[in-house]
Structure prediction request, 242 residues.
Amino acid sequence: MNKTRDKQKPDVTNLDRRSFLALSAGAFISMAIGGLPKTAAAATDHLLPPLPYGDGALSPVISANTMSFHYGKHHQGYVNNLNKLVARTPYADMTLEKIIAGTAVQPENTAIFNNAAQVWNHTFYWKSMKPGGGGEPPAALKKKMQDAFGSVAACKKQLITTATSQFASGWAWLVLDGETLKTVKTANAGTPLTSGMTPLLTIDVWEHAYYLDYQNRRADYVTAVLDKLINWEFALQNAGLQ
Ligand code: MN3
Prediction:
């Protein structure tokens, strides 16, 4: 049981399950859960975090149409699936990070891992971008890039190569491996969290991230994200440099 998480939850955890189900359609639960959607798993629900900006804020690099499907359907879908999959399992009350760490090495729980990691990865991806992003990284991050890659341009080029060389669905990441800045790619729902690395930022290279706007031109999408949207300040914070 995670105490921090429990504190944020409505106080319905002490009801026995039969009572909870019996009440779940009633006004009492509506009141107790403060207007959240009424589901039997409400006591342990993971919620879709709000987007840090509006649907159309990243346009024209990422259209409002892409955003509405990607956030509203795909990300929401992973949240919904996760809630269904962990209900009545030992993972029901765990934080996302604990679920990811626990299921990463359990082949029998691949479905839980995939949905939990996709929830986490997408939340991290939205924060990796901002309207009016791109441009020069802050000095401390720039220094790290120069140390590892020679220049900011070389670091960006390496990120583009990493993103375009990921065969099929996955993610491109800028990470800290120990003290060293690196680019890594992960397939499907994979995340550097399970390799002990510190993710600084990510770019989703699943086709659903770019196909409506760029069709098959993944390199154009990744380049535009890096030039116009990438949130270097977020990377700086994650690196503990700020
Ligand atoms: Mn995606």
